[in-house]
Design the sequence.
């Protein structure tokens, strides 16, 4: 288990700044996680003098996912925040350049949210569909990452 | 192997694999495929022949694999293992798909 500290969103910037002041000057990771009701942000910073690391976590409600940008502390955070923003629909207040980083199509649903349907998965044969002899199931199993309602919607829509 | 700071490649121990499909079904990127068939094996003293799965083909598409390690953790028979090899480039997309022989060769 990696030791981490959970901080409220309004302390996110101050805590990150405090870490820089304490020698954790290297931005190792800034990533998002969809916790359904909340979006989680994980920041891991390293002290290059002694390789010690500190991990900070904050959670914002999915209904208003908003957190201050850390791009003034680490210029590189700007890219990671752009990616988190398009992938998880999080708003970074004070971001110098909040354009999408990887997605081009404005209409794309945030790809890494669990609620986003993955149409490719409905049209790609799932290699797990072939059951081993001993594990025949009564009901066909849905591939991981595909929800029953997407299947229903897709079949209902095309019928 | 999992304690290494890097993830090199996933190797297969073909003799340990029972073709149970657990890794195929757990892999989030759908990059493992398995072909197998069932054979009847008669054993001395057994009243009826026993059905065993025989692995025909096992592939991992390293163009899709995201090195999450779920397959290694999920395999009930410890047939998948992390190995440190990292130099397996290909000049075609299909060349990134590795089969049983290469997956097993990485064990050495
Ligand atoms: S490491 Fe992850 S993505 Fe790669 S084959 Fe295993 S389960 Fe699939
Ligand atoms: S989970 Fe293990 S035993 Fe089962 S098919 Fe995969 S590698 Fe073989």
Sequence:
């Amino acid at each position: 288990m990696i030791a981490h500290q959970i901080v409220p969103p309004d302390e996110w910037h101050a805590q990150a700044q405090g870490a820089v002041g304490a020698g954790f000057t290297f931005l190792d990771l800034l990533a998002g996680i969809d916790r359904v009701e909340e979006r989680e942000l994980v920041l891991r910073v390293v002290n290059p003098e002694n390789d010690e690391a500190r991990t900070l976590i904050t959670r914002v409600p999915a209904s208003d996912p908003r957190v201050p940008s850390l791009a003034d502390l680490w210029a590189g955070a700007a890219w990671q925040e752009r990616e988190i923003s398009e992938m998880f629909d999080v708003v970074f207040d004070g971001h110098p350049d909040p354009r999408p980083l990887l997605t081009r199509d404005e209409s794309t649903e945030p790809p890494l949210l669990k609620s986003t349907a993955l149409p490719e998965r409905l049209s790609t044969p799932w290699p797990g569909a072939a059951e081993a002899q001993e594990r025949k199931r009564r009901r066909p199993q849905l591939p991981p990452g595909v929800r029953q309602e997407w299947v229903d919607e897709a079949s209902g829509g095309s019928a | 192997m999992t304690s290494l700071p890097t993830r090199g490649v996933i190797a297969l121990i073909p003799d340990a694999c029972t073709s149970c499909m657990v890794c195929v079904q757990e892999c989030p990127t759908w990059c493992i495929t398995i072909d197998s068939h069932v054979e009847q094996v008669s054993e001395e003293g057994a009243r009826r022949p026993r059905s065993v799965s025989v692995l025909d083909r096992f592939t991992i598409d390293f163009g899709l694999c995201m090195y999450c390690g779920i397959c290694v953790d999920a395999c009930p028979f410890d047939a998948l293992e992390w190995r440190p090899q990292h130099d397996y480039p290909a000049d075609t997309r299909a060349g990134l798909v590795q089969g049983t022989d290469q997956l097993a060769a990485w064990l050495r």
